[in-house]
């Protein structure tokens, strides 16, 4: 009798006692190929696992178990992305250290994962808050910093007044809300650490095509990176030829339709374009605009606003004077921070022009746009042209565009770019929407940034520097001679990227870099751990709680030289950017992992997680990985080769699960009532893995009954069915289940097992034992506890986890009998069963004897026969 309350704990103890899921070392694995299977590791929240987690983990577990039976050495680990705001917010409310809360939550998650039978190698467990892990995260940051890929900057940022910290653009969602707490995001100017992800924009874009990812996620990354090729050109200010305004456009073919220019409110030179009579209104408008986030300013549904600067520029293509406006739909961080506005051919420009009563001039037409072979013919009807009420954003033919009139848009883009370059007022240029990654946070619960700041005056106190070694990185090519260091440092003229080594007592202590307010030293005494604090709450003034801990902040570098530690911390994304490497070699002390293990395990073969991470974790991890590739830590260019998306588990009402709706399903409750195998199998059965599905209690009962019947069949000695038919179905099932697991189509794999149980049971013969063994092995990826029990019932003394996936025989896939559809004039009129391979003549002879078919031929003459072997016999009659 099926009793999961007894058998499931029994097999969980067995696995733990026998270390069943231990990953083999390369030497132990021998010639076995490797398979790295990974689900995105969770943040251990106080709520524990939900059924969405269980779906993802059950899927990777099924695939990992299957891969093991196919002869792979499988790495299937689990760990914790444990830095984050929830634990810190709880600490603020209760005074409980986040580490205590995190440890408690991790213990609960571990219990839940073990209770559903996940085959993780727990000896490889990692936690982003462990000091050994922090050490490596900090080391990677220093590599970024030393290569000029991490810099500090005073800049207006997205700021959450509730979380009291800065947010990256990717963390502002919906209607300008914080993705963590839903609070409306503000704009504040705060000193921040920024990672130069834009340096890798082209490589991040190009290598997307090498990945086996869902096309939708690849397209999301392409759009976020936002590569565009266009022309940047300058326009002289009317009345002051020495003053120029640069604009960037991807539609230079519309330049003769430009009727105004728009500056971003945060354009670096906006103040110099405002005339005295317009200054008051413009300055107020600029202040209001800067308080809004980029998302809020560029929202397509938002009504356009702006102010006229009072200035004009000259369009260099036609000499026309163009008014200069300020508008908040233009961003200072993209392109040049100024756009040429062509309201006839751009939606946003059109809305702005209509609101402000500005001129709208058409310069592209698609009317009578007639391709004629390789020529482009066009006719423009001036008399019948109505007032433009809609925007024409497509390519077409140029009109009213001087010597370029009549050219196609594609031809004009080439010719106009050539004109700008030949006359010296413009050039072709590639731009990206991707912005550098706002990295630092003004919070406590994150990795400390291992940098020490020195005031410029303190540099005069530097101890004697006895040697300067030559830098090996191209970013650090400029090295000062020993006798130049003190003077140059005191003057404070060195730009970021120039480096010199600080040698104290004949030993290289660190390198010295230029910072925003002074000099910076890398602190390689890692790990740099978080200090104890009295108050976990951010001050809200741009400083984290670490700034209030003197023993942490103040550092004595030498007898007469002191510095101050960086007090911002890293974001929760830092640890998840490289965790897949740590699983390969989790106790290696000197690097993220040993090169031997990195080379052996290579890319993650199957990576499973949600699409919500498309432009956050997945993009950040690719960036860090490419840096690690450049410095020789890894030998492959991309971290995750094959990404599998997952559909949500919805509430029984079809809505997204949430506490407020009261429709949350706790996996602990399901395991208690139905068993872990039922939970696992149900979640993989209710829909395609990639599709969302509502929770259905009736369906979960059906899965439980299937498992009960599976055990009952093993307890019955005699079966009543045809042996050959049963064994043929078994071989078809072996093929189908294996192929479907490979494709993450678990629902159809499970369906095949259900059909096999219902229709393919052999008699009590020599085939019975083979059938039962094959069934237990195929059941094992989905219901491992029951599979172990069934395997043991067959007299096996080893775990089914060590079994080999059964092989199917091709000849057993061929049916002895086939059902052929009979059609008359394209309509199905019946079916007949024949022996496999039956000839057309044999089919026709039987059909002609069938009165049910013949009645549809009464009075007609057969003019043609259609025969598809083993599938279709059709008659065309008139």
Question: Would you give an account of this structure?
Answer:
It is a single chain. By secondary structure, this protein is of the alpha+beta class. Among the domains are: 4-131 and 576-650, HUPs (Rossmann fold, 3-Layer(aba) Sandwich), CATH 3.40.50; 227-432, Isoleucyl-tRNA Synthetase, domain 2 (Alpha-Beta Complex); 674-812, Isoleucyl-tRNA Synthetase, Domain 1; 817-877, Roll (Ubiquitin-like (UB roll)). The chain is built from 27 helices and 35 strands. The strands form eleven sheets. A six-stranded antiparallel β-sheet has the order 23-24-25-22-27-26. A four-stranded parallel β-sheet has the order 2-1-28-29, covered by helices on one side. The protein has a four-stranded antiparallel β-sheet with strand order 6-5-9-21. Helix 1 packs across helix 25 (784-793), helix 3 crosses helix 20 (676-685) and helix 4 (85-94) crosses helix 5 (98-115). The longest helix is centred in the last third of the chain and has 20 residues, at 723-742. It starts with a helix and ends with a strand.
| Unreliably modeled segments | 369-387, 462-509
Beta-strand fraction estimate:
15-25%
* Major β-sheet strand ordering: 23-24-25-22-27-26
Name the CATH superfamily classification of the domain at 227-432.
Valyl/Leucyl/Isoleucyl-tRNA synthetase, editing domain
Q: What is the CATH top level name of the domain at 227-432?
A: Alpha Beta
Classify the fold: give the CATH topology of the domain at 227-432.
Answer: Isoleucyl-tRNA Synthetase, domain 2
Largest sheet: 6 strands, antiparallel
Please state the oligomeric state of the protein chains shown: single chain
Helix content: 25-40%
Rounded to an integer in angstroms, the radius of gyration calculated over CA atoms is 34 Å
Q: From the coordinates shown, what is the CATH architecture of the domain at 227-432?
A: Alpha-Beta Complex
Instruction: Kindly name the structural category.
Output: alpha+beta
Count of DSSP helices? 27
Q: How many strands in all?
A: 35
Shape: globular
- Span of the ends, CA to CA: 63 Å
| Mean pLDDT across every amino acid position | 87
